[in-house]
Amino acid sequence: MAFEGLSERLQSALQKLRGKGKVSEADVKEAMREVRLALLEADVNYKVVKDFIAKVRERAVGQEVLKSLTPGQQVIKVVNEELTRLMGGEQSKLELKSKPSVIMMVGLQGAGKTTTTGKLAHYLSKKQNRRPLLVAADVYRPAAIRQLEVLGEQIGLPVFSLGDKENPVRIAEEGVARAKEEGHDVVLIDTAGRLHIDENMMDELKAIREKVKPDEILLVVDAMTGQDAVNVAESFNRELELTGVVLTKLDGDTRGGAALSVKAVTDRPVKFAGMGEKVDALEPFHPDRMASRILG
Ligand code: GDP
């Protein structure tokens, strides 16, 4: 299960405070030492941990907390609120304004980009009554186009493709034109990923962005890769100005580093979470629910 180790360690660190009628500054300090270790062990970014602990400690040793009737509970509440804030606070929704709205899906190979493109189209059609068109512009990963076509058949949505010999910029542009002609209100472009970040990929993504003027540029990253995912997000954000992140594989036994650091490091919100391989295994990301789940 995701965050299992982190969850257990945080709960045990805070358990000691829970039932206490009186909590001293030293108690808070000791608990925060353990919380800090738990976060570092879960692969949360070092600086993020430092700021988080400082913030919680400052609030937790405040008079209103320590002098309250249930000081232990109050400290836990502070941790919960700060964890929520760390992950972005309010839920971040998609902002789809243009007609048709364009969503560019970007990411490295293997992160789950193509699968997530299908899942998101399914979500928009089922939950928001939209009429998505999928555009297959990942001409580099073998079989990515076919994979999107199969997904399209599975979810009953059309897929625009020009094969893998065409320039992805042209595919994206023609896909959007097709969506206009056929009255689709949202276009999801599965762009070309690579194994590693390189200049060609970024140039190509920028060229697509210039042509199609996306409403959303969502980076798909694998939560299992921890700080690597955060570094990938930083690079993509620097080059492309992302509008959000989708964290995949949160159904696996990820330690939590990516989920807890990506917003703080990149200032880009996590908008969705992938919870499995099936097409309906995509959920809007709710920082408050995630925090409560971690704290048990
Ligand atoms: P791409 O190269 O980024 O387009 O990656 P794919 O979409 O082909 O996904 C790579 C693998 O990750 C596939 O086996 C997917 O089924 C799997 N995958 C994607 N998202 C999730 C998820 O949220 N949970 C799990 N368990 N597997 C996922």
From TrEMBL:
Q: Which GO terms describe its molecular function?
A: 7S RNA binding; GTP binding; GTPase activity
Q: What is its main location?
A: cytoplasm
What protein does this entry describe?
Signal recognition particle protein
The subcellular location is: Cytoplasm
Q: Which GO terms describe its biological process?
A: SRP-dependent cotranslational protein targeting to membrane
Cited function: Involved in targeting and insertion of nascent membrane proteins into the cytoplasmic membrane. Binds to the hydrophobic signal sequence of the ribosome-nascent chain (RNC) as it emerges from the ribosomes. The SRP-RNC complex is then targeted to the cytoplasmic membrane where it interacts with the SRP receptor FtsY.
Q: Which family does it belong to?
A: Belongs to the GTP-binding SRP family. SRP54 subfamily.
